[in-house]
Task: structure prediction
Amino acid sequence: MSERSERSAAPDEVVRHLQAAAKELIAAARAALDVAEEMVDDPKSLLDAVAIVADLGRSVISSTQPADETGGEPRPEPRVQHIRVS
Result:
């Protein structure tokens, strides 16, 4: 293949890649619309999913403990010491 034909093949390849990427985006948008349509048709499934996420969030929050002995209260002194340099 000559250099000139290689240069003309490169834009064709770019166009093919862009077309493939556009088709993937369209497929992803269709999938998202299908999920949205299911949620509109059956809102119970959405409410169930939200309830699961809320329960998970509550379990994470309730199981966390403060990293120090303050019990989660603010410290009376700052944790950073400012030192003047003259």
The mean pLDDT is 82.
